[in-house]
Amino acid sequence: MPLSDFQVVIGLEVHAQLLTRSKIFCGCSTAFGAQPNAHTCPVCLGLPGVLPSLNRRVVEFAVRTGLALGCTVKKKSIWARKNYFYPDLPKGYQISQYELPVCEGGSVPFALEGKERTVRLTRIHMEEDAGKNLHDVSPDGSSGVDLNRAGVPLLEIVSEPDIRSVDEAIEYLKSLRAILVYLGVNDGNLEEGSFRCDANVSVMRKGAAAFGTRCEIKNMNSFRFLRQAVEYEARRQVEIVEPGGKVLQETRLFDPARGETRSMRSKEEAHDYRYFPEPDLPPLVVDDALVEEIRRTLPELPRARAARYQRELGLSAYDAGLLTADKAVAEFFDSTLSYHGKGPEAAKRVANWLNGEVAKLANETGLEAGAWKLTPERLAAILDLVGSGTIGGPGAKAVLDEVFRSGADPGEVVERRGLAQVSDEGAIEAAVDRVLAANASEVEKYRGGRKNLIGFFVGQVMKETRGKAHPGVVNALLQKKLGG
Amino acid sequence: MTPRAESPLDLTIQELGRRLAAKELSSVEVTGAALRRIEATDGKLGAFLRVMPEEARAAAKASDARRARGDALSPLDGVPVGLKDIFLTEGVETTCGSRILEGFVPPYDATVVERLRAAGAVVVGKLNMDEFAMGSSNENSAFKPCHNPWDLARTPGGSSGGSAAAVAARQVFGALGTDTGGSIREPAAFCGVVGVKPTYGRVSRYGVIAFASSLDQVGPLGRSVWDAAVQLRHVAGHDPRDMTSSTRPVPDYLEGLEGGANGLRIGVPREWFQGGVEAGVEKVVRGALATYERLGAKLVEVSLPHSRYGVAAYYLLAPAEASSNLARYDGVRFGLRARDAKGLREMYGETRERGFGPEPKRRIMLGTYALSAGYYDAYYLRAQKVRTLIRRDFDRAFEACDVVAGPVAPTVAFKLGEKVDDPLQMYLADIFTITCNLAALPGLSVPAGLHPEERLPVGLQLLGRPFDEATLFRAARALEREIGALPAPAGI
Amino acid sequence: MALSLEEVRRIAALARLRLTPEDERTFAVQLSAILDYVKQLEELDVSQVEPMTHALAAGEAATLREDEARPSLEPEEALRNAPEREGTCFKVPRIIE
User: Fold this and answer.
1) Does domain C1-43 have CATH number 1.20.120.450?
2) B158 and which of A20, B138, B360, C10 could share a cystine (Cβ 3.0–4.6 Å)?
């Protein structure tokens, strides 16, 4: 298959909306979901006479991100105008950064098939988002323009073309996304468009010295679509290049309905953006004091946290990885430990529950950790009840389910629903005796060698006790009375 | 010593302030007189694009009420002023002299408009200008030309032509204009009034329709140096909405105004007196310099070797910035839209074709070219570097002098229609004013006398160190005190 | 330095100006004359000169804006000058991606 003679080369550009309260150049709210043009002002509407006023938090978030990713934070960077005409671009230019961005270099670490990898970054810069074009707003087919999003701050994070497969691309993106969420600068939402990704894709013959011509692919708003788009594009390019053709450098849109990329017809002429330094904003100076202040407030990042869990708590790489993928879950884990107890055994128990039953409930209800009615204290309480023998496994699952959905107190649930196990040997012994008496032939068979009947006896005792007998005690008593 | 004026409209702001304070005049009276004068003269003069009689009368009434309570806000309280139609005025149509903004009603006031209102000034109307501030004669106004009150067959200069004409013709007492390459100083010189371009960053540009962002500045025009100084004092100062505005405190420009010119070192650039100025104009300018010497100033020859490249650098940089600033006029959110267009691309193209006059189109084309791929380094970037060279010339000159003096324009006001056919000729007339904007320095024009034959005003240009408007005012006042005021213009 | 009609058309397209054929010819002549004039800047040696990209000297400007949401315009105010609207959107001819 010709594809195997070729190597796909991928570079990724991520546009991440920043979690600031106000827009980058004006005080309008960045909150999502308002009626069209309800969050606009003369500045973000691009009215005559307006000027940009830079939001300090955007710069802080950019520096934070740059430090977390190991970039060089530039002491001086310049704003630039990128000029083009489009209805969602009110000024007819976007204020961005071009020749001198705020951060250069850096890298994103991730794991692929158990191996630690990094992809280098070229740069990170700040810019403003455009508004939204709405299609078919009236019967005559006209389009509508909503400028609520115009001026929302973006970080553009550009990777070097170091990525060599779609799997790598996806792991890179997941890791980058987790880091941005940990930093509190972005909410990581691919579907809603607050974390967007464009891919630069080219192909080259394996062993060739130079990269092939690349195309930029846009409009992939899920990892599934990204995979489809890049695989399609790589195949498309190989089919051109293999028989000796040349790939045309262009921007292509992914069409999710067809699973294909297509040329953007509306951009017939190559864009000449006529970049020049933005005269309305002075050069941005980020002094050492600010950098150090931000460096001091950097949180523990996902990979470091996972490493720490392995080192200090003895968790497996797999468990640690699962727990730290979501910052809120990792924090929930830490908090639960503070109630339930430290040490590897406690950690393993909590990890199992969080990655197991709790994760199942979270998936089922679609709730993020921040929205759970289950609190760390309550999870710890459930585990303590199991540890003390008050409830068994099935009982604990039932309690967790109710607490997760309603926020009830675990102890109260156990009592109200009579879920407490019976551990009193005397009571259980009476039940065991009744079962053995009622099933004499099975007792014979067991003593005769059918050891697998132990399950039957346990089941019968559990029936007798309406599920409340402590399984451990039941087993011990049966073994004693059945002998052997 | 001010003689008793025939009409209150002949008073300066300074004199009017005294009469208002002494309750000899009321703002309602003066504003009424101004509105009547405008009605009687503006048909011929063409200084106003829009008069605001109701708003003005209401503001005048409020001013008198404040004064009666003893709460006068400033020396500008109750004084009728005009605003170049480049300043956004909330609820009042603002066109920037262009059809593309016909009917545009802003939802906010420019910062300088807020400040003037806060000082109690009475805004009488919006003044005529070259479209998007592009021009030196007000002939590029999309609506109507403006005439020079000294001779209605001549231009008042531009782009703040309406501002200079209205002040000179005693329709208003003061006005705000903008200056990007000379657009306050040249009309001030042509109309015989004082016009000031402050240091870049001294006055907020928020709410001022942008032409060339790194060159535009807001400045006052008045019939005396005091009048210009008092207006600047009330509009200057940092504005958090303008990140290019300076945080330096604003001195009281009225203090030290009478300090005189004794000991002042005046730099005279040799390149500016090498034959590029009409003989009569040069005579008046040299006369003013001789007056300064009599007053105890010292003339020092300085050299600005790169100033001759100023027009070339300017006519790459300003159009480049303008081509970007004017991209927002696309018919989508405000202003003119070509509704008969089929499709978006056609809508853009038709809207801008119909909405812009020839000069904005020309500069947009030039600017787009200078920024486009392959040409950026040779044109835009090179012009930015030449800008640095021009600034360095001035830094060196200011080691030997306190102000630089010279002509404002090569000629007196020229006739309407004289230069419209050759844009380059029009551009070359900016030769003396342009370097001040490029170097980001303050500059002003003060009347130096009348042309010996033409009997038209000639202005003397003074340029200063960054943020040293105080020295400029002091120097200009010394000349004004010595030579006296010009007579009132005879044309209207 | 003669600007061809083709160049004029390219620039006009970039600037979204639908020039009349007469304007195209006039601008070709006028712009060529201006570009010829500005050619004199090539006489200067600017190899060691920094561009003056910003007119305000360093240190004059203020600190940055605090991140607080401020009231926006009401949609009706935002749309007040809209040439055409649909609901609270600006209406434009169909946008084709």
Assistant:
1) no
2) B138
Q: How far apart are CA B153 and CA B46, in angstroms?
A: 12
Phi, psi torsion values for A477, nearest 5 degrees: -65, -45
Which of A391, A416, A441 is the C-terminal boundary of a domain?
A416
Distances (CA, A) of B369 to B165, B323, B324, B456: 35, 9, 12, 39
Residue C13: closest C-alpha in chain A: A269
> Which residues from chain C sit within 8 angstroms of residue A255, using beta carbons?
none
Judgement on whether residues A219 and A279 belong to the same structural domain of the protein: yes
Is B28 contained in some domain? Answer: yes
Q: Does B213 touch chain A (CB under 8 A)?
A: yes
Give residue A1's pLDDT.
38
Check if B160 is active-site.
no
Q: Any idea what the Cα angle at residue B381 is, between residues B380 and B384, rounded to 5°?
A: 90
Q: What's the whole-number average pLDDT of chain A?
A: 91
Q: Which residue range(s) make up the domain with B196?
A: 20-262+435-483
Question: Is the dihedral angle over the CA atoms A126, A127, A133, A134 positive or is it negative?
Answer: positive
Number of separate domains in chain A: 3
Ordered alpha helix ranges (H), A27-97: 42-45, 56-68
Verify that A317 and A429 share a domain, yes or no.
no
Same domain, A197 and A346: no
Q: Mutation target for B interface from C56, C85, C95: give the one with most B CBs within 10 A.
A: C56
Same domain, A323 and A434: no
What CATH number is associated with residue B234? 3.90.1300.10
Q: Tell me the nearest-neighbour CA distance from C29 into chain A, angstroms.
A: 23
Do the strands B174-179 and B80-84 form a parallel or antiparallel pair, or are they unpaired?
Answer: parallel
Please indicate whether, in this complex, the C-beta atoms of A282 and C58 are within 8 angstroms of each other.
yes
ipTM of the complex: 0.96
Q: Do A37 and C86 touch (CB under 8 A)?
A: no
Mean pLDDT of B415-431: 88
Q: What residues of chain C lie within 8 A of the CB of A26, using their CB?
A: 70
User: Does B49 map to a domain?
Assistant: yes
Label residue C71 exposed, middle or buried (CB < 10 Å: 0-12, 13-18, 19+): exposed
What's the domain count of chain B? 1
- Per-residue pLDDT, averaged over C67-95, amounts to 96
Q: Are residues A249 and A144 in the same domain?
A: yes
Residue B375 included in any domain: no
pTM: 0.91
Q: Do residue A94 and residue A182 come from a single domain?
A: yes
Are residues A348 and A336 in contact, defined by beta-carbon separation less than 8 angstroms? no
Annotated catalytic residue, options B137, B159, B160, B204: B159
Which tokens in the block code for residue B204?
């907020």
Q: Is A308 in the same domain as A279?
A: no
Q: Cα separation of B386 and A386, whole Å?
A: 80
Catalytic residue among B84, B126, B197, B419: B84
d(CA A242, CA B476): 78
Query: In whole numbers, what is the pLDDT of chain B averaged over residues?
Result: 96
> Does residue A75 sit in the same domain as residue A204?
yes
DSSP-assigned beta bridge partners for residue A12: A199
Q: What pLDDT was estimated at residue A225?
A: 94
Residue A139 tokens read as: 């019967």
Cβ distance of B385 and C53 shorter than 8 Å: no
What's the CATH number where A469 sits? 1.10.10.410
Mean pLDDT of all residues in B422-441: 92
Chains that touch B (3 or more CB pairs under 8 A): A, C
State yes or no: is B298 an active-site residue.
Answer: no
Domain boundary among A259, A292, A325: A292
**Would you call A394 helix, strand, or coil by DSSP?**
helix
Percent of chain A whose predicted confidence (pLDDT) is above 90: 67
Residue B381: what pLDDT? 95
Residue B418, both tokens: 């004289």
Q: Touching check for A53 and chain C: CB below 8 Å? A: yes
Phi-psi region of A247 (alpha: psi -120 to 50; beta: other; left: phi over 0): beta
Q: What is the pLDDT of residue A428?
A: 84
Domain of A386, in residue numbers: 300-416
